[in-house]
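Sequence only, no structure available. Ideas?
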Amino acid sequence: MASLSFSSAVSTSTPFLRPSAFFLKPRSISRLPLVHAKIREIFMPALSSTMTEGKIVSWIKSEGDALTKGESVVVVESDKADMDVETFYDGILAAIVVNEGETAPVGAAIGILAETEAEIDEAKAKAAAQSSSAPAASPPKAEDSAPPPPVASAPATPGKLVATPYAKKLAKQHKVDINKLVGTGPFGRVTPEDVEKAAGITAPPKANVVAAPAAATPAKAATSYPEIPGSTIVPFTGMQTAVSKNMVESLSVPTFRVGYPIATDALDALYAKVKKKGVTMTALLAKAAAMALVQHPVVNATCKDGKSFTYNSSINIAVAVAINDGLITPVLQDADKLDLYLLSKKWKELVEKARAKQLQPQEYNSGTFTLSNLGMFGVDRFDAILPPGQGAIMAVGASKPSVVTDKEGFFSIKNQMLVNVTADHRIIYGADLAGFLQTFSKIIENPDSLTL
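Reply:
I predicted one. Tokens follow.
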């Protein structure tokens, strides 16, 4: 199982220190002059770039156990995988702060490590203090319902007349010296009403129109669903939470979809030959997609900020894999550069690690193009949701006998599969996707190049 070192030190006589380098480069800690502590906090590590909290699957060590540098201490579930976490200090596991099955945010203390038995009591006291020091939620401040006091108008600049054009016109008509008037408008501006008052003109009374009070906007009621008797509520796992977050994030990207039928008789024949050598259909499709992406790099591109896009230097094919409690996409890195047999071997290793929840972050978050194949389940067509941070995803349906016509209009039966590609329309256009699918189709229909 993959492992990660994670402890960092806290001195009882020095300020609390928690630099991120403790997670990324734990060996550099020995060079920091401030680390002379006897008691160290064990922090929840960040096992991926999207991880915000982790769940303790199990503690390999118990309280009071002696630890050796490099030894696995705890198994942590991130949003994608379970990982053994090692310590890079010798010492004694004095106290467990976060128990098995509980979660903690990244960077939070999950255990206390004492250097010698003499510090165990102090470490336990520190752990107890941390467990009881959860800050109480502060009551929300009541908003002042009274309107803010009106801002007083600034006086007009001395020696400078400020008046509306209509006020000046009225003053000229009624022979009123406008320079002697004191304006009541904003910033001391002289208004038409000021001129009429000085001229002794009584303005007609304004109709006392009372505006009807606006109907109170009803508060948006929370969506409620009828309860089904006997139902059970199951909270999301870390992986399901990550999948949910990614799917919601995908909705912000403008996408479009293009379908393309591809004859698979030649591919089926090749698969029958190479299957005995351990080659899977997924590896064949991934290799064909990678070869097509070489000729259409924009389909392998990424737009992350809506202002620019990146031509990725590598073609990393992510392939969707269903596991017990979610979905993960192991990545075949540099798929265009690997031969078919090495690619198949690599794929089998990734699937085994994915199902054991042992994938390293770079093995599932470095994809530049995703392949989703439900054809093995007999699904003839479906649309896939674009993963965040990628330009396109290909959905592959089952190969089935279909009636087709040739150029002369003669009918024949051929095996065909329908491929649907969902793409980011900010960087990939219809012609780009059509060209990519034409190239992909040619490779599938003439697959000899896949084994070169």
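DSSP finds nine helices and 19 strands in the chain.
Hope that gets you unstuck.
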